[in-house]
């Protein structure tokens, strides 16, 4: 990217038309959205508390809900960045699967904790790199490039495992998922999730990288004219998503004590759904980490309440669909009235 | 046995041999009918007419399904007179139909089909039968009996029934016993059958009540997630039936993480890891009900017999039967050694 640009004039011409509303309005709107999501979550907690007071309002259950939110939560943070930039990553579930099975092969397990962690992260980043190169420099549409990655990563995961479950025998990994490993009552998986969320929030809201991401998603051409290397930015974003998948794969290995090619099934849809109900625009230009994480927590809490009340999976799926519709409708209402 | 070089090959080879032993077993004292003198037991190693068997199996994305494909392959390798035309496994109905049509066009002698969806593949089964190719329908049954010559498969209802009876016997002296169920994929017919069998068996034990049931997705991840929820929801229960040993790996992990050991667990299918845990005997897993992947090896035997016009050894019939339902044996510490070679990874 060494194309000559004339930032001042070009930017002056384009940005006023396409730029989102002024800062103050944006901040206020985001708050209303966050509040409406918190409202949904509070309502769910009330329902859980009323239907199963003993089981739901229990420290163990809180730990369980947060633990189960961790894996998909980390993936969703990466996804939020990609969607904010106007892209999409359909390969996240497949990358989690590939990273988890590659990291749990017997050869990798010989190197213990570090070997498994390193492999999971490297495989995630590697897949993200391929996605990023195809999209940023190969000129492929994100939908197609990541769809291709979905297919091939799943295929490779299947090839590595031969369909069998790879059980982890490294104690250091297994111990991390046990209750003795909790720090002040918080499972290590949840700590990782919290850390990724905080870093994600800071990067998106407080750094040049974050501003560039929003700018690329808002109007890529304007961003280019404003001097942003759009292609490199896109490459970094898919790398970031891959990195999150690698971390999530490691968490899943700790959680389930194994690697399986079916891991991460439908994560792409769950992560996209969580980001969208969180208030990230599918067309790009606006993203909220807080909203995405609340979205994940809402889904996990529903699943938890349903399981505690012994409702069957068909009912769970219908309710999940209804929640997505309701949350988006509520947001539209609140967003348009302010 | 020299063709088996890998350990896995050896494992499945042994599995196939024992399945063959079951088919041919206990026949020595039978008087042979003169008219049937050219009839040979299906599993006999004596070479006969050359037979080309077309095999269309599922995508091996699950330990059991992988074992199915391996069993079929290694069984076919045992016969000098059998050529196996194997297609790429697929869970896609349209793709599998295409693959079977290719096998029909190649004019294989016999077809063995484990359909991803039995109902959806009925038409192509009919097409093969009309083309004069006998079809051995493996496990997931076609909609019409005209679409296959012989069906061989597992007994899902029987799995539930035997799991229920095993648990019932273990808990029969306990008042107000509580049982929970971790089912498989709820959108599969087989899951409903397993649950129905389980419920029917428990009706024999009025002291036992099923207090919860959750469906997982046959994966380790779903097994861990759903089991963690179940353990949270049920602070005390006496027994758990888990439909599938693969998701059982996740379920056992959740049980270990919750630090629970106050109940007995029965698995399903017959994975090697489950057998090993049962043999070790220090965990909650005490037994598993079989859904034997050796059925694929037996399907090859039946296909070969069909191609060569033989019957099944050990039976008086001239022809192979129209259907064979396998038995869902309960494997516990007492008999686990016997079944260990059939365990799949």
From TrEMBL, chain A:
Main location: membrane
Its membrane topology: Multi-pass membrane protein
Subcellular location: Cell membrane
UniProt xrefs under Pfam families: BPD_transp_2
Domain of life, source organism: Bacteria
Transmembrane regions listed in the UniProt entry: 32-50, 62-83, 90-107, 113-134, 141-161, 181-204, 235-255, 289-308
GO CC terms, sorted: plasma membrane
Annotated keywords: Cell membrane, Membrane, Transmembrane, Transmembrane helix
GO molecular function, one term: transmembrane transporter activity
PANTHER family with a match to the protein in the record: ABC TRANSPORTER PERMEASE PROTEIN YPHD-RELATED-RELATED, RIBOSE IMPORT PERMEASE PROTEIN RBSC
Protein name: ABC transporter permease
Natural source organism: Streptomyces phaeolivaceus
TrEMBL record, chain B:
Domain of life: Bacteria
Gene3D superfamilies per record: 3.40.50.2300
GO MF entries: carbohydrate binding
InterPro entries noted in UniProt: Peripla_BP_I (IPR028082), SBP_2_dom (IPR025997), TAT_signal (IPR006311)
Main location: other
Compartments it resides in: Cell envelope
Pfam families: Peripla_BP_4 (PF13407)
Keywords assigned by UniProt, alphabetized: Signal
PROSITE patterns, alphabetized: PROKAR_LIPOPROTEIN, TAT
Cellular component annotations (GO), alphabetically ordered: cell envelope
Start and end residues of each Periplasmic binding protein domain: 53-310
Family (UniProt): Belongs to the bacterial solute-binding protein 2 family.
Protein name: Substrate-binding domain-containing protein
Species annotation: Streptomyces phaeolivaceus
